[in-house]
Write a sequence for this structure.
């Protein structure tokens, strides 16, 4: 299981992410993103959005994944509420790939309140490293 | 002295230098008062000034203005000019919100006659100008073809579509249009993010503010800028919205790969860059200029919506209202400009990341009306205190590539601000100070409350006392709308 905690950042929002594996870390990042973006407690899971990503490094995959959540909300007006427990990241000479179905619902301004607009998911202070058997990194959202 | 292990030597007054060390190509230079030096020890902004000095083709200095703070790759408040033939362009030197900027418009109204209708004005502005997260709808969702026209034509697109007058473009940096914009270099995702966001203010530190001119420091320049004490003016602070953020995101990836291709080894990957003349560099500049044009169209549309709100509130015609754009400046951009380096004119790519262009009197790129006094420099503060209008100088041209500061900078994190605001009614506190505030989210008001920001006058004074920009007027808020 992954976890996250929001940490102080003067201008923007940041979180420390932890996970036993890269998928765990990615789920932690998604949870941190949800807390930063959503204000409301009204949640439901009404559909699935399939995504497929391929990046050169683990850090780039993490940033691309959370950027995708941001894009889905901003353009497709769709909120990710859950990232499945059973997705895998494939590592090869070509890089890192993932394929999964996100669970969520269409954004409805009458029901949902957003708290922050994340301009971008940055590489700032991002450095995925092992610490006491866990993967750890910081993620900073530009507000 | 050393701050966070970085050597910093005073050159004169509020100008400090980081001497060349390691693979730095030029020294770093920081404008900051002795009293503000403490603020540098809390983060890695000074390290970022040093890192930027490693960029290939950088000229003279890696500069930081007094509103310096920790950014991504470049510090906020950073200025770096690279040789267009031998140097690089870096998206980190522009930032995510491409052409985030400020415009200031003046009116014929003054506080004595108009003050009692400010509440109504703020209500109308809040209704007419889309604000907040995911705001859309000031103008109908554009087709891709129409959006690309906007990306080519910037503020002119807005004027051609009925949002303002051609004269407005005379008082906009670059006339509100960078001519080498290449909408085909903008990704599909970025286009999608822009389709319904033209004419929206956004959230975070973006705002539309009604101000009153409360102090004039230079009567002659103020008169030429069309400003006088007691006058009602407005400021609009926003940028290129999701389209610009996506352009930056897309090209950071492209240029990360380019860095390896061109054999650069830089101390921070967020300094990802490519030669200005390379295909990657040209593509980024074409996309970045498209986003900059989007931002100018955005501010032009919002100003028009604000003008309509004034006319509605005060039942005045456009000519009686005398709504006049004073100037529009961008503070997140890379521009190809000519500057003097070691006695020779050179074409440079000037990155301003949280820094404002501040061209001198007589410069060919400033409006005829301001030729004798220099370009207006707009420096917003926080929503409880004041903002400043200044003017560019010859010293800015010789020492900072015609650049100055851009704002106050945050003092507290958003979380600290929320804690400070707990149990308080910030809207009511501001109302008691004569400032009517309306926002989509109360949380935004708490996060953006005045004490969350540094005192912008400290920043402006460093630039004034260093002779980089001259203080012209101070304006204080009487009404604010935010996301």
């Amino acid at each position: 299981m992954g976890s996250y905690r929001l940490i102080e950042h003067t201008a923007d929002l940041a979180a420390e992410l932890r996970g036993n594996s890269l998928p765990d870390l990615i789920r932690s990042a998604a949870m941190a993103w949800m807390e930063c973006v959503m204000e409301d407690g009204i949640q439901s899971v009404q559909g699935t959005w399939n995504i497929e990503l391929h990046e050169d490094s683990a850090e780039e995959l993490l940033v691309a994944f959370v950027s995708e959540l941001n894009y889905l909300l901003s353009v497709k007006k769709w909120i990710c509420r859950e990232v499945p427990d059973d997705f895998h990241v494939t590592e090869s000479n070509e890089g890192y790939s993932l394929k999964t179905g996100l669970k969520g619902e269409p954004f409805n301004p009458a029901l949902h309140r957003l708290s922050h607009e994340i301009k971008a998911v940055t590489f700032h202070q991002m450095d995925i490293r092992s610490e006491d058997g866990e993967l750890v990194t910081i993620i900073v959202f530009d507000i | 002295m050393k701050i966070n292990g970085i050597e910093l030597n005073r050159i004169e007054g509020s100008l400090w230098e980081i001497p060349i060390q390691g693979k730095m190509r030029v020294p770093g230079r920081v404008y900051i008062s002795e009293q503000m030096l403490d603020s540098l020890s809390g983060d890695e902004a000074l390290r970022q000034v040093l890192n930027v000095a490693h960029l290939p083709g950088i000229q003279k200095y890696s500069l930081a203005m007094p509103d310096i703070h920790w950014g991504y790759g470049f510090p906020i408040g950073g200025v770096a000019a690279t040789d267009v033939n031998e140097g690089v362009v870096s998206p980190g030197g522009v930032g995510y919100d491409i052409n985030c900027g400020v415009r200031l418009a003046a009116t014929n109204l003054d506080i004595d006659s108009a003050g009692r209708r400010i509440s109504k004005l703020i209500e109308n502005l809040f209704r007419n100008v889309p604000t907040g997260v995911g705001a859309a709808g000031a103008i109908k969702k554009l087709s891709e073809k129409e959006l690309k026209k906007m990306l080519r034509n910037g503020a002119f697109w807005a004027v051609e579509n009925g949002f303002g007058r051609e004269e407005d473009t005379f008082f906009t940096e670059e006339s509100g249009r960078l001519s080498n914009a290449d909408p085909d270099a903008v990704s599909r995702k970025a286009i999608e993010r822009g389709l319904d966001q033209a004419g929206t203010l956004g959230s975070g530190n973006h705002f539309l503010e009604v101000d009153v001119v409360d102090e004039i420091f230079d009567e002659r320049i103020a008169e030429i800028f069309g400003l006088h004490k007691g006058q009602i003016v407005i400021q609009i602070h926003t940028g290129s919205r999701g389209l610009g953020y996506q352009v930056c995101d897309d090209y950071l990836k492209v240029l990360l790969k380019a860095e390896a291709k061109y054999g650069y080894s830089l101390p921070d990957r967020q300094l990802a860059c490519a030669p200005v003349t390379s295909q990657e560099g040209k593509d980024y500049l074409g996309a970045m200029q498209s986003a900059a044009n989007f931002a100018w169209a955005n501010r032009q549309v919002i100003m028009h919506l604000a003008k309509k709100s004034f006319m509605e509130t005060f039942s005045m015609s456009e000519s009686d209202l005398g709504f006049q754009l004073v100037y529009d400046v961008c503070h997140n951009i890379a521009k190809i400009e000519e500057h003097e380096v070691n006695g020779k004119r050179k074409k440079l790519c000037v990155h301003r990341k949280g820094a404002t262009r501040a061209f001198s009197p007589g410069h060919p790129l400033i409006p005829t009306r301001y030729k004798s006094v220099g370009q207006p420099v707009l420096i917003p503060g926080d929503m409880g205190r004041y903002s400043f209008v200044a003017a560019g100088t010859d010293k800015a041209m010789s020492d900072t590539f015609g650049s100055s500061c851009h704002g106050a900078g945050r003092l507290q994190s958003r979380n600290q601000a929320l804690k400070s605001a707990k149990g308080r009614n910030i809207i009511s506190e501001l109302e008691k100070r004569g400032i009517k505030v309306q926002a989509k989210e109360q949380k935004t008001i708490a996060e953006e409350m005045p004490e969350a920001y540094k005192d912008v006058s400290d920043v402006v004074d460093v630039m004034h006392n260093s002779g980089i920009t001259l203080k012209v007027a101070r304006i204080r808020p009487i009404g604010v709308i935010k996301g």
In short: The radius of gyration of chain A is 14 Å.
